[in-house]
Amino acid sequence: MVKVLLDTNALSEAVRPAPHAGFMKRLRANEAKLALASVTLHEALYGLERLPDGRRKEMLREYMRDVVTKMPVLPYDAKAAEWHARERVRLEAAGRTLPYADGQIAAVAVVNGLALVTANVRDFRHVEGLRVENWLA
Questions:
Q1: pLDDT of residue 127
Q2: φ, ψ dihedrals at 82, nearest 5°
């Protein structure tokens, strides 16, 4: 059963030259509970495609093929879009903005009742109804 949505920075932590040990332990312990938002998958694939050909790009392609493509990918659908629109209006009325893609990712997490794992806790702190976990803390 999916319980956790990985943000882009959490997804990429595992392929850093020296990944955070505590993060990796939690990632392995929650392997069956992980999912991605379609927006996160796009961000990861976009970053991959922008890299020059070489060993790093090939290693990342293998990670995407062997690990990432096995995770459920949840869509930014009509329900998420409706929630996102209301939350953008609420945040703007409070004088706050959230990058559009982050709002989409937050929407997917909220409408699916999932916690969002991210190192960007600050970016999401004002999003109503979003449970945020920082496995890098």
A1: 97
A2: -65, -45
Distance CA 4, CA 18 (A): 23
Dist CA 73 CA 19 (whole Å): 23
- How are beta strands 34-37 and 4-6 bridged, if at all? parallel
pLDDT at 69: 87
Q: What pTM was computed for the model?
A: 0.93
Q: Which of 47, 28, 44 is nearest to 36 (CA)?
A: 44
Question: What pLDDT sits at residue 13?
Answer: 94
Positions in the chain short of pLDDT 70: none
Cα–Cα distance, 14 to 129 (Å, whole number)? 27
Tell me the residue type at 3: K
How many Å apart are CA 130 and CA 111, to the nearest integer?
Answer: 9
Q: The domain at 4-133 falls in which architecture?
A: 3-Layer(aba) Sandwich (3.40)
**Residue located via tokens 């991959």:** 48
What is the reported pLDDT for 137?
84
**DSSP H helices in the chain:** 8-13, 21-29, 38-50, 55-66, 78-93, 100-111, 121-124
Give just the sign of the alpha carbon dihedral 85, 109, 112, 16: positive
